[in-house]
Amino acid sequence: MDHYELITRNSQETSEFAERLASFLQPGDVLALEGDLGAGKTTFTKGLAKGLGIKRTVNSPTFTIIKEYTGKLPLYHMDVYRVADTLEDLGFDEYFEGNGVTVVEWAHIIKEQLPSNLLTIYIYHQKDNQRKIVLQPHGQRYQQLCKEIFQ
Ligand SMILES: Nc1ncnc2c1ncn2[C@@H]1O[C@H](COP(=O)(O)OP(=O)(O)OP(=O)(O)O)[C@@H](O)[C@H]1O
Ligand SMILES: [Mg+2]
Questions:
Q1: For ligand 1, atom 23, which residue shows the shortest CA distance?
Q2: What pLDDT is stored for residue 85 in this prediction?
Q3: CA distances from 89 to 83, 93, 96, 101 (A)
Q4: Averaged over 64-75, what is the pLDDT?
Q5: What local confidence, expressed as pLDDT, does residue 121 receive?
Q6: Which secondary-structure segment (H or E) carries 140?
Q7: Which of 42, 45, 121, 122 to mutate for ligand 1's pocket (most ligand atoms within 8 Å of CB)?
Q8: With 0-12 CB in 10 A as exposed, 13-18 as middle and 19+ as buried, what is 66?
Q9: What is the pLDDT of residue 69?
């Protein structure tokens, strides 16, 4: 399967990449973020929020599962780390089908409930502050999106 990679050397570079990616997003886009504890999923989301013109501070929504922000597009930020029962329907569809951009940290935990078309973004720890970011598009919309970002 095709995928796209880049290396970032510090949190600012991760944030800046996400900020740039935000400029290509459309209503209804879904980003699935994967990576270990402290990989940089929330850092990425903060950059994305900046790119969407969101002024409010974006924090990890671990205890609330979903937080909504208003920007050029609405941002729905989910962290499903604490969702124990993967089959429990918490109404995620309303977000995925909404007019905003949905970002899901630890997305695989609710994989049965995710839409089949989305952009998976893996963040891997490398040495020190280096991270490898791998984008894997699922569906035509996200293949096109990746081409635009990396062209
Ligand atoms: N290249 C990098 N990209 C992103 N974050 C980095 C990088 N280098 C160092 N960091 C640091 O790693 C940490 C990433 O934390 P962050 O909360 O974004 O991770 P997370 O994946 O959301 O973790 P959690 O699983 O707890 O939600 C921050 O302290 C950040 O400053
Ligand atoms: Mg986080």
A1: 38
A2: 61
A3: 10, 9, 13, 20
A4: 93
A5: 98
A6: helix 140-150
A7: 42
A8: middle
A9: 96
Q: Which amino acids bring their CB within 6 angstroms of ligand 1?
A: 8, 10-11, 13-14, 35, 37-43, 60, 105, 129, 131
| Nearest atom, ligand 1, residue 79 CA | 27
What the block records as the tokens of 70 is 């208003």
Q: Which two tokens stand for residue 65?
A: 């599962």
43/51 Cα distance (integer angstroms) = 13
Q: Whose CA is nearest to atom 10 of ligand 1?
A: 11
Quote the tokens at residue 76: 């729905």
Tens of pLDDT, residue by residue over 11-43, are 999 999 999 999 999 999 999 999 999 999 999
Does residue 130 surpass a pLDDT of 90? yes
